[in-house]
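We modelled the chain as a single entity of 320 amino acids. Its sequence is:
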Amino acid sequence: MKDLRPIIWDDENNQLILIDQRKLPHKLEYFTCKTYEDVAYTIKDMVVRGAPAIGVSAAYGMALAEIHGADIEKAYKTLKNTRPTAVNLFWALNRIMDAYDKGKSILEEAKKIHEEDIETCRKIGEIGEKLIDDGDTILTHCNAGALACSAYGTALSVIRFAFYNNKKIQVIADETRPRLQGAKLTAFELSYEGIPVKVIPDNMAGYLMSKGMIDKIIVGADRILSDYHVFNKIGTYSLAVLAKHHNVPFYVAAPYSTFDFESGVEDVVVEERGEEEVTYIDGVRIIPEGVGVYNYAFDCTPPELVTAIITEKDIIYPNE
């Protein structure tokens, strides 16, 4: 794997360095966080995005609060309120607070979370690639790759390890409106590593399935409930419905830290983001002035549409 490191902790200068995903694919630039407020900004403004990456970054944000003698409770609340749907954020922050309450170093706990995320993503890839056949064309949605984690990714880890094992695969990436994470990030990652990829408009997936041009679908997840309802990037549910109709296996790849064993579907806050994400593309307005939009960032896919969930420990079949 080429050395694409989305999250870097700089021990010498006590700062967090993140790939600025807003600049991709045109520029590979880094954003330096020196305070927990900087980290909160990067999460809220999507400098960093993807559930595992958000969790790791928030953990380092708490470490920066500790290093600079900031109010730990205030830092916790600030970071917790950055984004409401991805459960890894709350998982990581609660783990940090537990370590803090026990008198442990927050920085050391953050480093453990970071290292564990790399290993977890590697295991997801090794386990999941067994579901991929030589010659498969795989559709993926949004970006569930190294950029969304610490390395490898979740859905893209499965794809990567199939590629590493010399399986001849093709990847199709949905563009993923409104922020185009598939077109900008997934296509960047895969082409950066030499994995064959093509981008399609979001509304083309059903047609390709009807033509037999997609063998499998693999997506990530921002939250999975105990009954296997999957919350992921908006558009995931539509793909799952299409996959069911066309008998295309629909896989979700996510670590156990993405599971929420306490909430029901009605308890999950689905984030609504600003209208400007839809009304503008790269600074150019595409919708008439005065026309409103809906901009839900996530949707919910019920378990009956999910073929399997690939984790770092095993493969779960919700319908068996």
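As a brief sanity check on the tokenised model: The domain at 7-120 is CATH 1.20.120.420 (Four Helix Bundle (Hemerythrin (Met), subunit A)). The mean pLDDT is 96.
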